[in-house]
Every structure is written in C-alpha cells, then in structure tokens.
Write a structure and sequence with these properties.
This protein is mainly α and 714 residues long. It has 41 helices and four strands. Belongs to the Mediator complex subunit 24 family.
Amino acid sequence: MVSISIVFANTQHMTGIDDMVRAVLTCKEIQGRCWTDVVRDLLHGAFLLIHDNTSILPPSVANSFLYLRLPRVLQKLCRTETPHESLIGGLKALAGVRSLLNASDLKARCNTLQFFVNVLGDLDMVNDQEKAAIMQIRFEGQAGVMEHYSADSQPPINLVLKAEPTLLSILKVLNEENLQMPERLSQMLNPLMSGKGLLYIVAAASATDQMGLFAGKLIRINEHYRAASLSDNGGGEIFDLSFLLLHRLSQYHSTKFWLPPGDPFFQSWYFKTANQLVRNIHTREDVDTLARLREFDLMEVEEAFARLRRGHTGWVMVRTWDFVLCQVAPIGECIVDQVKKNTITTEELKHVFTGLLRVKVNGVQCMCSPLLCLAQYLALRGDDIARMVAEKLSTFLDSATSVEMDRSKHVTDRISFMINSARRFLMSFVASEERPLPPFNWFGIGRMLARQFPTVSEDHFPLLSKPENIPYLLANSLRVGCVASALVSRIIVCTELAQFDVWISSLVDAVHRLNTPWGIKTWCDISIALCFVDPSECAPRLIAYLDSSFPITHRDLFCVAPRGGPLASFLVQLFLVALRYTSPPSPSTAATICRDVQKNSNDLSVRYDATLVSLRQFSTIGHLYESFDVCRGGALYPSVNFVGIFLTQLAWHSSSEAKVMKNELPEDLVLSVLWADPHLLKPETIVALYNPQEAKQRHKIMQLFCVLRKVGIF
C-alpha cells in the first residue's frame, strides 16, 4: 500500500479521485488488508514521498497530493467503506512513526501532521478531541520538540493550502460575464506570469480534479480573443496571456489528460508535442508533424521573413492573432535554410528573434509567444542545423529580459514566463547524459542526484525518461521495501510509448535474483503497485510476459519455497486486477465507484457477463490452467504445492472476477491436486471453489469429498 500511494502521487494528473478510490478498494479486496492498515500505509507512503529526492515531482505536486488529494480520497472511502475507527487508528499508527514525521517537520519547517489533521478537520472527518489524541501520540516522550517551530515562519505547506481557494477564485472570475472585459481578465491572468503561483494552482487543480475545468476556461478565453481588432482593445494581450498559460499546462501534463480527444487544440502541434519535448521522449511521429506544416502561402511567409530580417515588423495587419503563430514553423524553416547556406548574419538573426519577441501588428505590440513556438520548432526538428540556431536563440534569451526592463512589470513578467517555457525546449540540445545512479536511501538521496541531472528552474518537471536505470531503481526499491518515485516516472513514460517490455522484463528478471520470503513478497507488492500506473494495460501485459518467460523446463523452480507461496498468491491478485480493469464496469460501479454492485444480483450478473467476454478475449486464464501440470506420466511435480496455494487463495475471493476464474477451472485440476496431496486443500476450500447452488457443481463437490474419504481425510 505504501507503493500504491507513491504511484497515486505520480499519476494524479492522469486519473481522477474516483479512479484512485476504486484502486484502493481493489487493492484492499485482493490483498485482504484491514482498513486500519490501508489508511496507515496510504498516509505513510504520502509522507515518505516528500523525502524521496529521486522524485521528478516538484514539492508543490507532492504536497498537493498529501494535503489536497489524499484527504479527499479518504473522505470518499469513509463515506462508503472505511469505518471511522479505522481512519483514527491509521492516523494514530502514523503518529507513532516519529522518525519520519520529525524529518518531515524539519524539511517543511512546521508541524506537518498537525497541518494534515487540520485539513481532515475542515472536511469534518475528525473532531477536536480526536485531533488532540493523535497529536498527543505524536509528541509523547518528546518534550520541547515544538520549540523548533517558529510561529513567524511561512512553511511551503501554506502555499499548497492557499492554492485551492485561489484556484476557485480564478475559476469564478473566468466566467462568461467577465469574458467581455479584457481589463478584468488581464488583472487575473498577469499575476500568474510571475513567481510560482501557476505551479501551485496547477498542482491544486490536478489534486482536486479541476484541471480540465481550469484549462477549459483558458481555452474559452483564447478562442474568444482569437479574432484580431484594428483598435487596441487588449485582445492581443489576452490572447497571448491565455496561449502562454495553456502552453505551460501542456508542458506540465500531456493534453490528453485535460483535453477531450476531439478538441481542436489537441491537434495543434505546439500543444500536442510540448510535454513529449520537455521530457525528451518525442517520437518520429511527432517529428513527422512538421511535414504537415508546409501548407502555407510561400510568398507571404517569405515577405514576413524578409521584413523581420531587416528589423521591421513582420506583419502589418492580420485577421486572427493565431495567424502569426501558424507562420512560425515555415519561418523557422526559412531560418534553418538560411543558416545552412550561411546566407544570414548574426545581426539579421537577432532581428528575426527580436521581431518574434515583440510582435507589433495592427498597430499594437501584443505578443511574445511566437518566439516560444520557434524554440519548440527547433527542438522538434532536432538536427544539427537546428542545434546551431537553438544555441544562438539561447544566447539571445539570456539578454532578452534585461532589454525589456524599461517596460511595465507585466510585460517583463510575461516575457520572463515565455523565456522559461522556451528554455525547457532548448534544454534538449544541451542536456547531459545520465550517469549511473549511486546507492540511495529515503532521507539522503537528493544531494548527490542534484548535481547529476540538469534542471531549468524550481518549477520544472524534469522526467528522467531513459530506461537504462530501471533495473537499478527496481533493485533499490526492493531493498528499501517501497517503490521509488523515479521508477514510477520511468514506467509512466514507457507506458505512454507502449514500451511495456522495457520495464516488465526488468521486473521479471529481478525475481530470479531473490531468494528470501521477504524479498519475494516485496517484489509481489511492488509489481501490483506498478500495474496501477495503467492497470488496464500493465496487468494483462505482465501476465502475458510471465506466461511466456517461464518455460516448462524451468517452471518448477518457481513453484517451490521461497518463491512458490508468494508467487501463487501474487498470480491470483494479478489476474483479479487484470480482469477488473479490462472489463467494462457496471452502471452501479460507474456511478458509485464502490462495490455496491456485488450486493445486487442483477448488477453482478451484468458485470460477470462483461468480465467473461473480456476473459475469453484475452484467453490468459486458459493458458495459465494448461500450465498447471500437477502430475504427468505418474511422476509428481513440485508445482502441486504451487497449484494448491493458488486454489486456496482463489477460494476465499468472492468477487465477480474470482467467480469467472473459478468457473473456468478445468474439471480434473482440483481432482489431480487431491490425488497428488490430499492435505493441500481443506474441505471448506473445495466448497468455496464451486457453487453449491448449481446441481452440476454440487455433484463435483461430492465427488471430491469422496476422494478425501478414500484417503482417510474424513
């Protein structure tokens, strides 16, 4: 569960709160954990994440998960499944982990657990008496520890907690009424250009499932002010502001997570490829999008480029502001072509950059975003000539802010904001190679890594996307018993690129080197957790890889101690996760995200039918059961104990997915296990594997009981 919590923190921009609640319910069900342990482990993982300095998550995201998202997940759980006593028990158990909380308090310069229980109190989840009891456990035997907290300090947690009301205020102001008032919009959007305000607002939006709403408001503003005006009504400035903000959002998170698939903004190359470029994982398909940008009026582009080259205004009059952005790619093509032929001087190139930085059109100086699009174009192109131009552009950006110091603060902040976004693309040309990672622990890892991986600014989302270090990160995660955030980040990248074998092969190879029960169990827990990056894809593919990676000649090695028992239980859990997420949920499940569906026979039958269709489509259960060779040619195989544990674990599961697995059991499988070792399966286990309400299965139970009677069990 600690690993699940860290996976949740890394994927909160990809999934909603309801999806996380469903995942917690699934994990609790398949692992048979009590609710107190579930709550404690979720909290433990969230606090532990703050000290995992391999994480690509900025502090704003990690803190927003802990103080904004996790309380809402717990709130939904308490409303449906989790007893209140289990919530309090989990909090008290966390309060006893003083080494972790002391380190958290020191890093945040405040009483972190007090902040957290205060958030729960604001949600009416705990009362004052319960908060006092929790804090008494926290500081029991630690007199004087509160002296280290300064009442005058402003902990970063306050920035997280204040971001949510700020976000709600912005969403309230960005309405249809104020849409017609550019001055009001400018007052609201300009402050987002300076400081870390936008970063915390985006983190709060992701944590509270409002990213789509926030982006939708900005898109509405951008579309409303897209038409250019001959008078200075502020429309160009608002278009530029909204474009820069939307572009930064697309750098933080892929647009597919906050835009509908059919949205035209998703098709725009400067939004579609931004996240991939920032993380240096763009593919050939992304580069090929440049070929589709050649549908333009060549004469018009050449005229604009010639004017920019001479230091003049590139465009005298346009009908829409985005017309300028659409011409950036062909202008970039002209620049690259001129540099390749060595027919443009450094001074002329500087004129072009300046013209794209301070775009004056329709008599109004309105935009600086075209220069950002040029940086993105060069990064997307990625060849040697583009690198040469990018180096010159990077030098120009170093002095661009100082040139603008004589202008208003709003203009300077906007240009600085644009430059910061542009540097994220130019970084791909100068990023250093990854070096082997040193051994790490949860409280001292960051000091060495900080010097190895380049970052642009504190609010950058660096993602170490190369797969070479996956085995190392996995080995260290197994050593400390908790998945490293950097490992989750890499697996997210591999999943987005459909490179599942890259990390699944490392995961399966790791189990070959484990030879202790604790190590095997840790591997099983981490494997289940990593599947929740995208359970509908990862779980079935892990099953398929496991099925193909253990041939008959070597399978017996994994059926005996210490691997046999934990792996048998793991296999049941993995199949249950795969079946649950590869079959469509029932209407009741979609509406309530809890397991009320299992209390209604009609909904249960609907879900069972859907699961059965999914099961037969993948045909994975059949392959598994065919490999259960208990005995062959009169020789007893070691797998009999493995199969016995598998059936025992399957028997105590009563979900619809488990029912499907039970119904697909071969008729002679249980019988062959009993003939091989009648002590492996208890009578109650046999009854649980079948449905006594059906005559055929009731007859099967009686037949198996007769076998037990013959060998003297009864």
